Amino acid sequence: MDFGIKNKTAIVCASSKGLGKACAGSLAMEGVNLVITARTEDTLEKTAEEIRNSTGVKVKTIVADITSSSGRNKVLSACPNPDILINNSGGPPPGDFREFSIDDWNRAINANMLTPIELIKATVDGMIKRKFGRIVNITSASVKSPIDILALSNGARSGLTGFVAGLSRKTIKHNVTINGILPGLFVTDTMRGRMREGAKMEGVTEKVYTSDRIASIPAGRAGQPDEFGKLCAYICSSHTSFISGQNFLIDGGAYPGTF
Ligand code: NAP
Predict the structure, then answer these.
(1) Is the beta carbon of 138 within 6 A of some atom in ligand 1?
(2) Fewest C-beta in 10 Å: which of 54, 86, 125, 179?
(3) Is the CB of residue 16 below 6 angstroms from any atom belonging to ligand 1?
(4) pLDDT tens-digit profile of 205-244?
């Protein structure tokens, strides 16, 4: 299938590694030129080179903390009129909510709710004017099925999801869609870190903790970032102008509900 987005331009936030990188790579395979971002220059440049070499698209790199307004301004100055925006950043740490301070909550809300909203605010009107826009927020399965040790993530990402539920119904008539992708367990550096932290909190080895988590996934395995990237590219395609305000769970069947 031709996704119909060749020569479009995408900002893919937090994309030197993991799920963001996979989204960037899949969009590039569809001929989308990219602006990719991360805080660490060498991994970002390595990823950019990999994508350029394998797809031939233009890839601009912006080294910036996407959760800061100066970081976002740097990205938006390099690409003020993206056709596609993929919102992503690091997730908040796990823990017992009794130990989280107001600063912890403010950091989580800033990174996982306000940062995507600010980027949407800066780009959505241009998309509406040009009659094409695809915005995808990378959130978490915890939005649909809260994870007790990830209270900061459950709360902040649900706030973003609620905001998008309203806005996405206003933009769709202009062929601008806003959707969320909710990852379950995927093999990335963040996931490995979560397994280490979870094992420590439960007083078991990382191996035991990881295999227990995997045993609870009907697919019998964790997801590969590439599977996530492919879904993201499809949601950004020209064929999805009738889909907005949806939250796509990609979790190997882990969520047990009928809907
Ligand atoms: P990852 O493999 O560790 O990659 C994170 C990427 O984000 C890196 O490129 C990192 O580069 C960049 N990044 C992090 N904080 C940033 C910031 N403030 N500004 C700019 N770039 C930043 O992580 P991942 O697993 O793909 O996770 C992506 C998102 O999905 C996270 O919010 C995570 O919580 C969520 N998630 C992941 C899973 C999973 O199983 N993997 C499940 C549910 C939710 P630098 O460090 O160099 O900035």
Answers:
(1) yes
(2) 54
(3) yes
(4) 999 999 999 999 999 999 999 999 999 999 999 999 999 9
**% of the chain beyond a pLDDT of 70:** 100
- CA-wise closest residue to 180 among 170, 194, 168, 169: 168
Q: Does ligand 1 lie within 6 Å of residue 17's CB atom?
A: yes
Residue 36 in contact with ligand 1 by CB distance below 6 A: no
What is the C-alpha separation between 90 and 190, in angstroms, rounded? 8
Best of 12, 15, 17, 232 for a ligand 1 pocket test (most atoms within 8 Å of beta carbon): 17
pLDDT at 245 over 90: yes
Distance CA 252, CA 227 (A): 11
On whether the pTM is more than 0.70, the answer is: yes
Report the distance separating Cα 74 and Cα 84, nearest Å.
17
Cα(66) to centroid of ligand 1, in Å?
11
The secondary structure of the chain, three-state, reads CCCCCCCCEEEECCCCCHHHHHHHHHHHHCCCEEEEEECCHHHHHHHHHHHHHHHCCCEEEEECCCCCHHHHHHHHHHCCCCCEEEECCCCCCCCCHHHCCHHHHHHHHHHHHHHHHHHHHHHHHHHHHHCCEEEEEECCHHHCCCCHHHHHHHHHHHHHHHHHHHHHHHHHHHCEEEEEEEECCECCHHHHHHHHHHHHHHCCCHHHHHHHHHHCCCCCCCECHHHHHHHHHHHCCCCCCCCCCCEEEECCCCCCCCC
What confidence tens digit (pLDDT) does each residue in 14-73 have? 999 999 999 999 999 999 999 999 999 999 999 999 999 999 999 999 999 999 999 999
